[in-house]
Amino acid sequence: MRLIDFDGTLLDPWQRFYSVFCKLLGINNLTISEYKSIKKELKKDGLLAEKLGKSLPKSYFEDKAEMLESKELLKLDKLYFGLKETKNLFQNDTFLFTKRRNPQNLKWQLRRLGLDIPVIVVKDGSKFDWINENITDKKVTVIGDSIQDLKTAEINGVNAVMVGYGLGNKEQFDSLGIDYKYFNYPDELYKFLIGE
């Protein structure tokens, strides 16, 4: 069984995250490439804001979580692979595996992108908890871009494949001391997933 993360693994969410950060902090002089570079280096929004001489508003994380799943901002996302190529990945016991607070907006986004694929949405709890509670008799490979994705490999029978072009980075992944396979670019991941 393969469980493939969406945001940062199959879907490029950088414009969405950048837009939310800039809007909530009232920033209009930061390019997306500057945002990506600093975010990858510092990881935490509070440190990023501090570097820019700002501080996070009190309700920042609540507002961020809500805005990130708004239809207006979900429109900014683009697939890393073409539609046909993305659909090709979802054969033979492969599922989209994502954590979203608003599953209805995820369905809307998938329809908008033209993706009719099998989906597992973790709304409450963690991906780790979901696998632990729902999959006991299969070997599982989790493909993702975050610490939460990598932590699933602490479960017996779960292997992790991590990407460096999403929201996480190799330094973070290595710090956990968990074995994983790593790809730095989308085309490398794609070749691996289709068995080239």
Computed CA radius of gyration, to the nearest angstrom = 17 Å
Helical/strand content category? alpha/beta
Order of helices and strands: EEHHHHHEHEHEHEHEHEH
Distance between the termini: 18 Å
Number of helices: 11
Task: Report low-confidence residues grouped into runs of 5 or more.
Answer: none
- Report helical residue fraction: 40-55%
User: Could you describe the largest sheet, including whether it forms a barrel?
Assistant: 6 strands, parallel
* Mean pLDDT metric: 95
For this structure, the quaternary state is single chain
Gross geometry: globular
Number of strands: 8
Major sheet: arrangement of strands: 5-4-1-6-7-8
* Beta-strand share of residues: 15-25%
Overview features:
11 helices; 44% helix; six-stranded parallel sheet; 196 residues; single chain; alpha/beta; two-stranded antiparallel ribbon
Characterise this structure:
This protein is α/β, with parallel strands linked by helices and 196 residues long. The longest helix is centred in the N-terminal third of the chain and has 12 residues, at 14-25. The model has no long low-confidence stretch (mean pLDDT 95). The strands form two sheets. It has a six-stranded parallel β-sheet with strand order 5-4-1-6-7-8. Strands 2-3 form a two-stranded antiparallel ribbon. The chain has helices at residues 14-25, 32-42, 45-51, 60-68, 71-74, 83-88, 103-113, 127-134, 147-151, 170-175, 186-193; strands at 2-4, 11-12, 78-79, 94-99, 119-122, 140-144, 158-163, 181-183. The chain starts with a strand and ends with a helix. It is built from eleven helices and eight strands. It is globular, with a radius of gyration of 17 Å.
